[in-house]
Amino acid sequence: MPPVACAPVDLPARLESMRAMGIDCHIKDVAIRYGVSEDLIAAIIETESSFDPRAVSRRGARGLMQLMPATAALLGVGDPFDPRENIEAGVRHLRALMDRFDNDLPLVLAAYNAGEQAVIQYGGIPPYPQTRQYVSRILRRLNRDGTKTIRSEPGSRVRADHSVPIRVG
To answer: What sign results for the dihedral spanned by CA atoms 1, 66, 148, 27?
Structure first.
């Protein structure tokens, strides 16, 4: 699929360097290709790495979308610090989770953070405080300017609501 004509993605103002590198256009292109909301991708990147392509977590997750080494290897990522490669793989992984959890956004986010096996094991969002805070934080970011509806794939919508038993705030 050819690259998409690019209007700026709603990135935080402090991230002009991302625009200069064309990352906003890459987010838009990958969002369309995989049927995932640009807003959701940007919210995950902001939460995971604060838009730092060199970010490394205490657990070893790397890059903008904080891919764990094993996940990055499964997705064929050669350089997790390459913003384009990291976003491409992260969104591909996110799309697989959306398919697996029937576009249930809180479950998808919990699986992205804690792993899909944890979500399956607990039959929902795991009782881990960090995961519950993560889900809540992203849902709040998506709802900053009111209730947003997240396009998850052509023709379907997933509402970013707070009906899941998680603590907000």
So the answer is: negative
Q: Does pLDDT of 22 surpass 90?
A: no
Predicted model pTM: 0.78
Topology of the domain covering 13-159: Lysozyme (1.10.530)
For every residue of 56-91, which 3-state class applies, written as one string? ECCCCCECCCCECHHHHHHCCCCCCCCHHHHHHHHH
Annotated catalytic, 116? Answer: no
Greater pLDDT, 71 or 9: 71
The one catalytic residue in 16, 38, 46, 48 is 48
How far apart are the C-alpha atoms of 77 and 29, rounded to whole Å? 18
Residue with tokens 């009906």: 163
Give the C-alpha separation, 112 to 103, whole Å.
13
- Collapsing DSSP to helix, strand or coil, 169 comes out as coil
The domain segmentation of the chain, as residue ranges, is 13-159
Q: Between 38-49 and 129-142, two packed helices, what is the crossing angle to 10 degrees?
A: 140
Helix (H, G, I), strand (E, B) or coil at 152: strand
* Pair 77, 68: CB distance under 8 Å: no
